[in-house]
Task: inverse folding
């Protein structure tokens, strides 16, 4: 687990990516897309192969954390993590580390709460959150 997490963290930084997923000493997925779309694409593309993987992500809020739990990820590194995202990971026994903790994830203009965070605020079940996010993201 730690080797995969280190690999994902290294690739995230070196290639200036937004998301890297590693498992068994291999990178399974990487993207520089912003928002939740990259994670949704990874779930669709990798399916069950995301189980037991390690993820490095630039931003992990509650929405991303619920998707990571839904996918069966076992370790997460975030450059920035929200209180809600950390709580979801902790409650689901997912190893996590982060550089910066913030109360909430803001929208791209940094004016209001991220729309995806608002969308999943009422969910605690990762599968329900996944279905809701998938329905609202192209």
Result:
């Amino acid at each position: 687990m730690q080797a995969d997490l280190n690999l994902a963290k290294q690739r995230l930084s070196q290639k200036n990516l937004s998301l890297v997923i590693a498992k068994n000493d291999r990178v399974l997925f990487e993207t520089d897309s912003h928002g939740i779309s990259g994670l949704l694409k990874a779930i669709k593309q990798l399916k069950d192969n995301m189980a037991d993987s390690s993820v490095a992500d630039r931003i992990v809020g509650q929405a991303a954390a619920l998707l990571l739990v839904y996918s069966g990820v076992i370790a997460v590194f975030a450059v920035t993590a929200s209180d809600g995202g950390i709580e979801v990971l902790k409650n689901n026994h997912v190893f996590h580390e982060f550089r910066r903790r913030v109360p909430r994830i803001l929208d791209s203009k940094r004016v209001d709460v991220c729309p995806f965070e608002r969308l999943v605020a009422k969910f605690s079940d990762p599968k329900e959150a996944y279905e809701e996010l998938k329905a609202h993201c192209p």
